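Re: How this chain folds, sequence and tokenised backbone to follow
How to read it: Take the token row as a discrete description of the fold.
Start of record: The labelled sequence and token lines come straight after this line.
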Amino acid sequence: MPPPLYEQYITQAIAALGYQEFTNAEIYAHVDEILAYIHTNINAVQTISPGTTGALLERLCRYGLDAAIAETQATVRRMPPQWEWLGDYYLQGDPFNLVISCKSFTAKERLLASGTGSALNPTIGWGAFTEPDEFSPDRILSYAYRGFVAIYMPEVTRNALSAESLAFRNINGRPFIRARQDFVADIRAAINAEGRINPRLL
């Protein structure tokens, strides 16, 4: 049985770009190039379905998560099917777990509706977001009320946000809106010696 389309597309991009020997961290560092290749060489020929696009972005996020937990005792777990509305992955925490909700190029209401809705089990949003208007100060405040502690997005989108949006701080006093390339280092820095994530460090 052939692998799912999203895996085929990522494998094709990695091979074409010469990334076959790259580590998870190196692949994650080139997410923009992988997405650009897929857009130009695959999606431009035949439009990729929304479901496949979502699965593709989830897989690219997973490269970052796997890079973050490398050489630690932490494990990344896929959200069980009955709880997928909360998010896509979670890391066991100390004392509470961290949920990662992946979205594609637009957040719309889907990102806001995901997550646990509680700061006790915080959520991170991650995506290839291209619409700066979706991250107004009012909307960011709504994410904070929903228990989000950070949203990671491409640097180009982040740079287009208002100064007020960028100045917003999460419950831990840290930047709420973050560049996607900081994801690996931020997650790794919050993992303790027992391999559990401390959301208060995010």
User: Anything to note?
Assistant: The longest strand covers residues 98-103. The radius of gyration is 16 Å.
